[in-house]
């Protein structure tokens, strides 16, 4: 069964540094997403991406964050000037269709620890 | 008011028991509904979509009540492997994002 893959599985970074989280969505999917889950809290939406542009973003996704699809397979989340409160599990997801109609398939996540 | 609300539990049930979870949503224009399960420190995995007429997948039955704005999940003949957190997910008619509940924790005891 095709799956979403994410790298690295765990990233430890000093506060103030930049991190790039990588994702390879399912190949025939057109919509891509990033979510985060702070330990003990619910999964929160960050951003959705379609046709090489952001289609929706949450209040969390401020100027500190950016997304990119640098080639035909990868989808990245960049976090600049990381803060302690950015420590969380970051999940990438993809779906065949948008508008929340189709299920989203999640990768196994990147655990980001900011020191 | 929260977009999606769930009883966090925990629910501790013996093997073979039947257990039901409810979830309420605040936006009457919500469009699609799903149940995901999440094992400890793992990714959410799709359990089932929830259709207006209700649907069943093996031991799992999902129901939607639009008038009362809640969805339910029934698990029959609980297995040890059903132990997980069950996440209620709702979408709106506009936008792509999933709105997650905080999840309901289930532990099935031998």
Could you please describe the fold and organization of this structure?
The complex is a heterodimer of chains A (about 120) and B (about 110). In chain A, the strands form 2 sheets. In chain A, strands 2, 4, 5, 6, 9, 10 and 11 form a 7-stranded mixed sheet that branches. Helix content of chain A is about 0%, strand content about 50%. Chain A has about 120 residues and is mostly beta strands. Chain A contains no helices and 11 strands. Chain A is globular. The N and C termini of chain A lie far apart (about 35 Å). The mean pLDDT of chain B is about 95. Chain B contains no helices and 11 strands. The N and C termini of chain B lie far apart (about 40 Å). By secondary structure, chain B is mainly β. Chain B is globular, with a radius of gyration of 13 Å. In chain B, strands 2, 4, 5, 9, 10 and 11 form a 6-stranded mixed sheet that branches. At the A-B interface, strand 4, strand 5, strand 9 and strand 10 of A face strand 4, strand 5, strand 9 and strand 10 of B.
Helix content of chain B: under 10%
| Helix/strand order of chain B, N-terminal first | EEEEEEEEEEE
- Principal-axes shape call of chain B: globular
**Total number of helices of chain B:** 0
Q: What do the pLDDT scores of chain B average to?
A: 94
Q: Compute the number of strand runs of chain B.
A: 11
Biggest chain contact = A-B, 29 and 24 residues
Q: In oligomeric terms, what are we looking at?
A: heterodimer
Q: Beta fraction of the residues of chain A?
A: over 45%
Q: Key features?
A:
heterodimer; A: 115 residues; mainly beta; seven-stranded mixed sheet; four-stranded antiparallel sheet; 11 strands; 0% helix; B: 110 residues; six-stranded mixed sheet; five-stranded antiparallel sheet; globular
Question: Briefly, what is this?
Answer:
The complex is a heterodimer of chains A (115) and B (110). With 115 residues, chain A is mainly beta.
């Amino acid at each position: 069964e095709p799956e979403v893959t994410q790298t690295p599985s765990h990233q430890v970074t000093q506060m103030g540094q930049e991190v790039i989280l990588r994702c390879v969505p399912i190949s025939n999917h057109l919509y891509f997403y990033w979510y985060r889950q702070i330990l003990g809290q619910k999964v929160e939406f960050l951003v959705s991406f379609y046709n090489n542009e952001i289609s929706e973003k949450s209040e969390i996704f401020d100027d500190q964050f950016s997304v990119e699809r640098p080639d035909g397979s990868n989808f990245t989340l960049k976090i600049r000037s990381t803060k302690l409160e950015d420590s969380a599990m970051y999940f990438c997801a993809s779906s065949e269709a948008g508008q929340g109609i189709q299920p989203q398939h999640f990768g196994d996540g990147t655990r980001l620890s900011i020191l | 008011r929260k977009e999606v609300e769930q009883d966090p539990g925990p629910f501790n049930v013996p093997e073979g028991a039947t257990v039901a979870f409810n979830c309420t949503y605040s936006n009457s224009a919500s469009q699609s509904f799903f149940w995901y399960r999440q094992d400890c420190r793992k990714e959410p995995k799709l359990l089932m979509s929830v259709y207006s007429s209700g649907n069943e997948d093996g031991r799992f039955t999902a129901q939607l009540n639009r008038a009362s704005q809640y969805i339910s999940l029934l698990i029959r003949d609980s297995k040890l492997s059903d132990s997980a957190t069950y996440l209620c997910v709702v979408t709106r008619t506009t936008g792509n994002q999933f709105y997650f509940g905080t999840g309901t924790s289930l532990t099935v005891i031998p």
